[in-house]
Write a structure and sequence with these properties.
Layout lengths: L2 E2 L5 E2 L5 H30 L4 E2 L5 E4 L2 E4 H4 L5 E7 L12 H7 L6 H4 L3 E7 L3 H11 L5 E3 L5 H4 L6 E8 L2 E9 L8 H6 L26 E2 L2 E2 L22
Parallel strand pairs: 6-7, 7-8
Antiparallel strand pairs: 1-2, 3-10, 4-5, 6-9, 9-10, 11-12
């Protein structure tokens, strides 16, 4: 049976260490199989064909129209996150899912060491969205794809990852993913999955009594969760909010 704390929150069953070790070893066998299958999928991903991006494709950056080739910053590969944007909305109303995805990449050194550049292509205009990136303290390059070459999106929506390869002056698209594929960036989710209560979201299959997040899973008190760590943030609707009238 599941134990209960004094506050009523559910707990896993309590067993001796030998019993616990056997259960952990059984799960470890499944985890190793999952890792090997992930390695096999990654190997297949590396063997995908690629498709050329039309020459002259541009995005908009701090210096105006910027060739996609320049976004590579001289490196061979590029990972671009296509960030949703709600035009004309205050920062607290911007996409909480894209904020969740992009706020995790704080250190780019390990990508750069493998000849990979990471950048964000925003759905909003550069003039409107760049101050948001500055407010969030992002250290990665930020561009607008609002008026970019339609071939970059190829009919796909924002909220996706696209990978590119540069061979001289020719750029190729090698991979893309969206929806739960974007979890590749979400180290917080991977860490939460290791804990007893997991992500604490309603869709998860958990024992009865396990805690779940109240309200939106990526928002706290009306703001995307990551905004609360930014200096000067005030509650939504308060006078003098640093984000309400950018």
């Amino acid at each position: 049976m599941t134990a209960e704390t004094l506050t009523g929150a559910a707990l896993p069953p309590v067993v001796d260490r030998e019993t616990w070790s056997r259960a952990r070893d059984e799960l470890l066998a499944r985890e190793k199989a999952h890792t090997r299958e992930g390695d096999a999928i990654a190997a297949a991903r590396r063997r995908l064909p690629m498709t050329p991006v039309p020459p002259g494709a541009t995005v908009h950056g701090p210096d105006g129209p910027t060739p996609l080739l320049d976004v590579f910053e001289g490196r061979r590969m590029l990972i671009a996150y296509y960030h949703m944007w709600h035009h004309g909305e205050p920062w607290e109303n911007q996409c909480e899912g894209c904020t969740f995805a992009t706020c995790h990449l704080d250190r780019l050194d390990y990508l750069h060491a493998r000849d990979v550049t990471y950048a964000v292509f925003c759905e909003g205009s550069y003039a409107e969205s760049a101050p948001f990136a500055e407010f969030m303290g992002y250290g990665f390059p930020w561009y607008s794809a609002k008026d970019s070459d339609p071939a970059l999106r190829d009919g796909r929506g924002f909220g996706m990852i696209v990978c590119y390869l540069r061979d001289g002056d020719q750029v190729y698209e090698t991979y893309w993913t969206t929806d739960r594929g974007v979890e590749a960036l979400l180290t917080s989710y991977h860490a939460l999955d290791l804990t007893v209560y997991g992500r604490q979201e309603r869709w998860e299959e958990s024992p009865a009594g396990w805690p779940t997040v109240e309200g939106h899973q990526w928002r706290v008190d009306g703001r995307p969760t990551a905004q609360w760590s930014r200096p000067g943030v005030t509650p939504v609707g308060s006078a003098g909010s640093c984000c309400g009238g950018h």
